[in-house]
Design goal:
- By secondary structure, the protein is of the alpha+beta class.
- Helix content is 20%, strand content 27%.
- The two termini are 22 Å apart.
- This is Methyltransferase domain-containing protein.
Length: 128
């Protein structure tokens, strides 16, 4: 989105109003209930052996799944195990900085059982 906003600004001038104006990348450690079920083999169901299906799925996952995998947070019960961290703020109403952007952060785990870190963007539409 930022790249498109930058092209619009170049075409129509710096006074063009771009919304959202800002994006904030956030992270939080969590403990998901039954996280393992996302990629677990099915096995046998109602005396129907799905072993071959499981093998195909596991091989496909190994070949195609990213290390960081998008999952809808509302589909899986979870408990927060640490504080929300702001990792980066992107001013969409400003030109894209030159060079490579990278960020590092330490995420303290305040409770035992953390098995994931969730990430999301907060979008700010105005200065209010």
């Amino acid at each position: 989105f930022w790249y498109i906003a930058d092209k619009l600004r170049a075409r129509y001038g710096p006074k063009i109003k771009i919304l959202p104006q800002e994006g904030v990348l956030c992270a939080m450690p969590v403990k998901f209930d039954h996280l393992w079920k996302i990629s677990a083999p099915v096995g046998s169901v109602e005396s129907f052996d799905l072993y071959e299906f499981d093998n195909i799925c596991q091989r496909a996952r190994s070949a195609t799944d990213a290390i960081v995998e998008p999952q809808p947070l509302w589909e899986y019960p979870s408990v927060c195990t640490g504080d929300v961290l702001t990792l980066a703020t992107f001013r969409i109403d400003q030109p894209i900085p030159d060079g490579h952007l990278s960020f590092t952060a330490r995420i303290p785990l305040l409770k035992k059982g953390t098995n994931a870190v969730v990430f999301w963007m907060d979008w700010k539409l105005s200065d209010f």
